[in-house]
């Protein structure tokens, strides 16, 4: 096996550096590990044609195919053979590179597959560079980053809901327990320019979810994200940060020490290799991982055009529960949350209990008693007759049943019945001259 | 015609005092006016049996029946005759006095109707007092209050959606235009213990709705209600206050001057005769009139058990659009609004435009572009390729198409296409050494 002209020993050595030390993981062929690492740098996040190709042929064969400049017709034939052999294979949509609007189409003919592959090859070839792969693997080994593959037990299975847009591999640093906690995690995301209100509710939400046994997922940005991670750490909870660049370069740099603490107690994850810079495109694609990896997404504060709405959109598209925390309508930083509630059916959540309920942990629902008012006498529910007789009673002047009947507009029988209940509650008392109100 | 032993002249005189001076109203028989006035004091608001009886026999005959102590069997037979003669009559539910839980039942047999009438007679008889009727009519004439009947052109037709629970008559003071504006009104209700935030949004909402041509309906309470009325008046808008007691006694007394101003420029309305005191029961029943008379109900601030939720419940039950304004989740005064949004499908409304949309005045919907972020370059929508090429451009170092292709993970063709668009936008510029980012 050679790849990029590297000999087998070199490939094995480089692969082992990012796969060693993980108990319970299958010993993947070094070539496949190396090829996945290469692919994570060749295809931009969310490249559906790359996803389809690698899923069909394996990363190693797929890499060989583009290194050796096989024709789209030859590659297409191989892919179609594999798909034909898999009767249970999902209904894959070809040509679904989300980055190329002009090639986006539902296609299931050979010609359309070949066209998608041709476009893909033109995207991938400029990046075929063994030096980049080697450098990223060496850098990963240096910072104790590990490459996680979809066959690993710690792979967050819900990410596969992204289908051909799922990441080809994930780079991560941290403790294994953080990856294991992802199925029971909730994403808290929001504005970078958070208000004091936003930071307060992020802290309460994160700590409250940790108390309820959830891990907290976010994007390590300033504002809401940072506060969500910080509060989770402060509560000794699990927290996972998904990054838009390599896990060796913490972004934003002002969160360097926070991210270091997350690595020590939780995990940072990226689909981009070490050395990769975060770009706007990668932030948008990173958001799909946050939505897919967590059991629910909650937007805590977001402007009208906030990037958090992008994460919310992914969560909705994946059928994940979506919550939004309301805020003052006078705060532009809450406008995005209200928009999600109003136009996108996000659930209005106001405390950690309601957030936990999003993933099915329902608390007891207390029926809404519309007949009570602000100044109501408290928790004792009253019948309509009791309300009217209580209205008619005086605390000072004892009133007869006949008088109460006239005042309350009720028959004497109904008044007597209501007085019985009020008497039991301690709300009415009979004296010699008649009934008086108590309480 | 005698009633309570009063002669015809006296009845006509008393009736004329509360019916005179209204142009365009039909000259109702004085006896019917007098009897409606009497009924408004005999039956408590929302008494469905009284509603059925008066609707079937007319107020005058119905009053004679109870004054002369006709038997429930006799009255029931008359009612059933009328209903049988009306093939288009609604499917009336008997025995539906909402104030008597124990008699509440779907009933359509003679026995059940008679039972409901028997219970009704027991409620009404203690209040048969000609002195009360005369005093309330005299007091009404003194304060220029008028009696509005369901046959009047100014009667708010939507109130009839309350069916047998509709008011038997409405007492009101103010300008006729205020009644005419009710079909185009929106109710703004909320907490008495409003916060500064709540008062601010009530003011903005009321003024904004007036600007859009709506009348503002509310309950004249302290807090949100008062601010809604005040802002409507300040904007030279129409406003109508529904009261829980007689229109001659303004409640709360602290709103005496506000209510005086409402009478001068709008209207106050009550189903209770002059002299009647507001009671808890009457506040709850008053809320059904607010919900029924306005085209939509919006709760601006409300505690978890606020009386405003009662109004909201009536609006929902009547199929009226219901809106709620969110607020800080840290404010107990917004908990009721969040609850309405979360559990009772209230629409989350954050400005007067959205409030107006509740009644069908829809503004243009701007589709939500999930691919934009906080720091996005503004209003120009970009294709995915453009986003990625823009990411890859530098403002200082010119880059070749090949370089951009590698950096963006796009084919050179796609890069050239994207650069074309960015060039047109002014976001990219070609120099001798390659392309640079602008903006």
Automatic annotation (TrEMBL), chains A, B:
It holds the Pfam family WHD_DprA. Residues 147-358 form the Smf/DprA SLOG domain. Residues 377-430 form the DprA winged helix domain. InterPro entries: DprA (IPR003488), DprA_WH (IPR041614), DrpA_SLOG (IPR057666), WH-like_DNA-bd_sf (IPR036388). It comes from the Bacteria. GO terms for biological process: DNA-mediated transformation. Belongs to the DprA/Smf family. PANTHER family: PROTEIN SMF (PTHR43022). This is DNA-protecting protein DprA. It comes from Cryobacterium serini.
């Amino acid at each position: 096996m050679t790849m990029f002209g590297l000999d087998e020993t070199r490939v094995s050595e480089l692969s082992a550096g990012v796969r060693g030390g993980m108990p319970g993981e299958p010993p993947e062929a070094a070539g496949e590990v190396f090829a996945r690492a290469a692919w994570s740098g060749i295809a931009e996040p969310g490249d559906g044609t790359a996803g389809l190709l690698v899923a069909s042929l394996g990363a190693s064969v797929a890499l060989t195919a583009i290194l050796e400049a096989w024709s789209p017709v030859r590659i297409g034939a191989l892919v179609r053979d594999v798909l034909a052999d898999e009767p249970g294979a999902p209904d894959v949509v070809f040509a679904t590179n989300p980055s190329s609007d002009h090639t986006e189409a539902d296609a299931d003919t050979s010609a359309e597959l070949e066209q998608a592959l041709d476009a893909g090859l033109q995207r991938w070839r400029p990046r075929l560079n063994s030096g980049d792969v080697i450098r990223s693997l060496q850098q990963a080994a240096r910072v104790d980053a590990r490459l996680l593959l979809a066959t690993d037990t710690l792979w967050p299975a819900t990410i596969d809901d992204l289908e051909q847009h799922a990441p080809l591999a994930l780079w991560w640093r941290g403790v294994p327990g953080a990856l294991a906690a992802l199925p029971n995690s909730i994403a808290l995301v929001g504005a970078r320019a958070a208000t004091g209100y936003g930071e307060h509710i992020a802290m309460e939400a994160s700590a409250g979810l940790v108390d309820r046994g959830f891990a907290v997922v976010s994007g390590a940005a300033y504002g809401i994200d940072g506060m969500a991670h910080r509060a989770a750490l402060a509560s000794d909870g699990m927290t996972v940060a998904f990054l838009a660049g390599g896990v060796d370069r913490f972004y934003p740099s002002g969160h360097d020490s926070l991210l270091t603490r997350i690595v020590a107690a939780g995990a940072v994850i990226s689909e981009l290799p070490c050395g990769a810079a975060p770009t706007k495109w990668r932030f948008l694609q990173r958001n799909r991982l946050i939505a897919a990896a967590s059991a629910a997404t909650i937007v805590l504060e977001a402007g009208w055009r906030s990037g958090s709405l992008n994460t919310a959109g992914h969560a909705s598209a994946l059928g994940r529960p979506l919550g939004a925390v309301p805020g003052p309508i006078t705060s532009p930083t809450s406008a995005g949350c209200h928009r999600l509630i109003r136009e996108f059916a996000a659930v209005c959540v106001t405390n950690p209990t309601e957030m936990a309920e999003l993933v099915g942990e329902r608390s007891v629902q207390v029926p809404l008693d519309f007949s009570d008012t602000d100044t109501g006498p408290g928790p004792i529910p009253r019948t309509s007759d009791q309300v009217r007789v209580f209205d008619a009673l005086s605390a000072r002047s004892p009133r007869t049943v006949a008088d109460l009947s006239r005042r309350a507009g009720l028959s004497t029988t109904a008044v007597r019945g209501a007085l019985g209940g009020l008497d039991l509650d301690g709300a009415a008392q009979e004296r010699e001259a008649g009934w008086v109100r108590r309480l």
